[in-house]
Amino acid sequence: MTYTVRKFDAVIVGAGGAGLRAAIQLSEAGYKTAVLTKVFPTRSHTVAAQGGVAASLGNSEEDHWHWHMYDTVKGSDWLGDQDAIEFMCRKANEVVVELEHYGMPFDRLDNGKIYQRPFGGHMSNFGEKPVRRSCAAADRTGHAMLHAMYQRNIKVNTQFFVEWQALDLVRDADGDVLGVTAMDMETGEIVVFHAKATIFATGGSGRIYYSSTNAFINTGDGLGMAARAGIPLEDMEFWQFHPTGVAGAGVLITEGVRGEGGILRNSDGERFMERYAPNAKDLASRDVVSRAMTTEINEGRGCGPNKDFVLLDITHLPPETIMKRLPGIHEIGLQFAGVDCLKEPLPVVPTCHYQMGGIPTNYLGQVVVPKDGESSVPVQGFYAAGECACASVHGANRLGTNSLLDLLVFGKSAGETAVADLGKSGNAHKPLPQEAIDRTLARVDRLNHQKVGADVHDTRLSMQRAMQKHAGVFRFKDMLAAGVDRITEIEQEVARTQIKDKSKVFNTARIEALELDNLIEVAKATIVSANARTESRGAHVRDDATDTPETPDGRDDKNWLKHTLWYREGSRLDYKPVHMKPMSVDTIELKKRAY
Amino acid sequence: MGRPGEGMKEDRKARINRLKWHCRRALLELDLVFDRFWEHYEENLDVQGEAALEKLLEQEDHDLWALVSGREVTADPQLANMIERLREVSPAANFE
User: Fold this and answer.
1) Reading across the β-sheet that carries A562-567, which strands appear in turn?
2) Closest residue of A to B19, CA-based?
3) What is the four-CA torsion angle of A74, A78, A79, A81, rounded to 10 degrees?
4) Model-level pTM?
5) Which of A132, A152, A286, A555 is catalytic?
6) Fewer beta carbons within 10 angstroms: which end of chain B, N or C?
């Protein structure tokens, strides 16, 4: 197989919010910057973010970054690094105002300032009462953000490579990162992007689950590439789930449906939430509802031929109320469940939504790994930001509107750090290591020649079903252990997938096979990390982690106040301390997370 | 040399593959709708259909979903026809 080499100062993989923000920094500084993206930038999954971006601007009422920091640490169930969280919350106003200057059409108050609305978990005065902190552009915040930043990049001459699939990280014998190998989908041509700075902004990996709100593009490409290059993945056991996704499709049913009187029922037609939360019933918090749903399914009271979902019933509500107050739900039911929700209940399951873990980084956006007895040593030339990275600001659970903030702050930060490092480096690129390139060529070559092997679609489906069953929203010791075995089996199948279509031009079958190589790394990291962590914390909830005075709600700070690191080689686990010390303020001390 | 018509078949396959990739969108709702669409139309989308789909795919994702979900309507008959086809494909039992 042949390949060509192209030289850039910086290569960024991914053109969602984090990638575009990082690119602005590099291009504005005059560095020759390539951005590789599978889809057109404004079709990145950042588009789906509607809630807004958190910043303590205090436009409608008093607010302070320190209060925002407190909420974020508490939300993270104390697994978030307090230095990174302070950095993010302090930087929030700056990045939001910058975005405004790029032309972002934020909603405004009558006085012209940015309008802010309240959002779950964001409070004033250290958890006292809700505060208006989210800045939004109608219900299209993510989309408007991408447009503003894409236009800015065009202005500063960022070079986009649209419809390119990044394949592997290029790392030399010193462990330095020297770029990526990538494939032009249009031609099948393989190019080595030789760079002095490589930034990953590849987004989440929610497609490892059968039921996921993530778009099909969210296949964890950056995580797969990092893992294959020997970089550990951090805190991969932490995934945020939403209780009500349409079973089999994943499309979100808003919480507003239960707010308007929607009732969850099991196969006996029972309103089961009465048993789990006698007061709040169907309006209990997300995690309580998700856990109850999973218990009903696990105990055989699920619905449908496989008894693997429960029902969300709104048939008792007047049709006018549904059509007026819950616009879109009727159509979603028809389109994705084949159900007219005015007459029949909707099938729903807890659905994967956001990945808290990722490639380990610090608040400067540098990728950091343990080395020579130190827990966080930067990998030369390698940076990451956004959902693919773990800074770690979300810890064990993310607050709404902090994800858009994360990608702005750390996208910028990664870009700034890369600019500073480029300023210190000489003009010459380090020589490319041939064996790293050969590994990519061998991977693509195998797919081109494999004649008998596992079907990509079937194998992916097996992985997704196994992850849903074994490492879903509510976790059980035996299921997790069995899940490790199952995913290890599926990993063997992934290594011998075959594609019938061997053509070069826009071969989507090949792209999907390459994506599956990445998904399986994420799935394995998740199940192995989850199996090992024997406590409950944030989004990782285990049935066997008991509530005691020492371990409130199963959280075991004595043994588990630490970050997980999963290494692909030997599926090895390591751990590193949580940064409890902020940059300038006092530590936010451990306490039980209660709202 | 290949058999007559083989080149044309290859061309169609490449065009369809390209269109299929352009159906990878930012919103899951659209991914699911297009997935179903291709199950029905991969083998029998004519050239006019290809052109209509290509035009439709130039829409922004939120606008596209507003059209597909029936919240908005388009005055463009070419697009309206394609939207109709997207809405017609019945919900599949098993999405991935």
Assistant:
1) A233-234, A562-567, A572-577
2) A506
3) 90
4) 0.95
5) A286
6) N
